[in-house]
């Protein structure tokens, strides 16, 4: 759609692209996004479009198999009864488990024994137990979600942040990539790589843009440059994105805000 209200920024009339997608409700306005200066993309959901085989979403249905109960007195499933019988056979046996810690593997032997001389229901409880009867626990305390280790692992690239609303959502993996994606109901994912992190190209970008350099005083954010994203047909170049990590004093210590701005086409 063309010939909209004149734009003060580029002195051209505004224009919009309307996209109709398959949606469960009869007619719903889903989102509007400014793809470039005074150019917009509007997404509208329309249920009648789902009747066409080209637009009908793919759904995977899992069959449900029903069987008559063999023993009406016991409502437990047969698989559960088999599992309970198997557990009884192992109650008096030793169990050996394999585990992995870091980059090394090993094994630990667990011996299952009945509880002895700790508590018997037939024995009366003391009103004032002696302090020396309490044994210190070796269990590590539960770490909160704001554990510094979680933030450290995010900065190592082991965790990613997800945000956005509407049709497109965003995935930010620190030191790796920034991705724009959409997930269908059937599990299919359409994604656009906005940028990948390359330390050499980032340092070159900082050199050519000295205003982006970190400052010890006055500045509340750090800028990182992600390049070599998917090819953009409108600009004829690969996508790139600037990621700003800002200091946020408001909210809880675990709150994170993520949003995307597109000041120019595919940038």
From TrEMBL:
It is found in: Endoplasmic reticulum. Keywords: Disulfide bond, Endoplasmic reticulum, Lectin, Signal. GO terms for cellular component: endoplasmic reticulum lumen. GO terms for biological process: endoplasmic reticulum unfolded protein response; retrograde protein transport, ER to cytosol. The keyword NADP does not apply. One of its GO terms (molecular function) is carbohydrate binding. Residues 1-52, 158-267 form the MRH domain. The keyword Hydrolase does not apply. InterPro entries: Man6P_isomerase_rcpt-bd_dom_sf, MRH_dom, OS-9-like, OS9-like_dom. Its main location: endoplasmic reticulum. It holds the Pfam family PRKCSH. Probable lectin that binds selectively to improperly folded lumenal proteins. May function in endoplasmic reticulum quality control and endoplasmic reticulum-associated degradation (ERAD) of both non-glycosylated proteins and glycoproteins. This is Endoplasmic reticulum lectin 1.
């Amino acid at each position: 759609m063309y010939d909209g209200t004149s734009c003060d920024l580029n002195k051209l009339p505004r224009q919009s692209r309307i996209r109709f997608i398959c949606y469960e409700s009869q007619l719903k306005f889903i989102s509007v996004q400014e793809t470039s200066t005074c150019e917009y993309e509007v997404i509208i959901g329309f249920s009648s479009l789902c009747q066409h085989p080209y637009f009908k979403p793919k759904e995977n249905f899992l069959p449900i198999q029903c069987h008559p109960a063999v023993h009406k007195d016991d409502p437990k499933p047969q698989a559960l009864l088999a599992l309970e019988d198997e557990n009884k056979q192992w109650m008096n046996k030793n169990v050996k488990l394999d585990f992995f810690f870091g980059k090394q593997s090993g094994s630990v032997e667990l011996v299952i024994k009945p509880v002895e001389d700790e508590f018997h229901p037939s024995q009366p409880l003391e009103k004032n137990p002696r302090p020396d009867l309490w044994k210190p626990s070796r269990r590590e305390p539960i770490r909160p979600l704001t554990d510094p280790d979680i933030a450290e692992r995010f900065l190592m690239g082991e965790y990613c942040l997800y945000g956005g609303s509407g049709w497109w959502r965003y995935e930010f993996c620190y030191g790796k990539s920034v991705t724009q994606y959409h997930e269908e109901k059937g599990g299919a994912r359409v994604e656009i790589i906005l940028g990948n992190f390359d330390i050499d190209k980032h340092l070159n970008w900082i050199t050519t843009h000295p205003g982006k350099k970190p400052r010890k005083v006055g500045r509340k954010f750090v800028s990182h440059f992600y390049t070599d994203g998917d090819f953009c047909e409108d600009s004829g170049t690969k996508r790139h994105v600037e990621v700003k990590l800002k200091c946020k004093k408001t909210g809880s210590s675990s709150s994170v805000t993520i949003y995307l701005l597109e000041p120019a086409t595919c940038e």
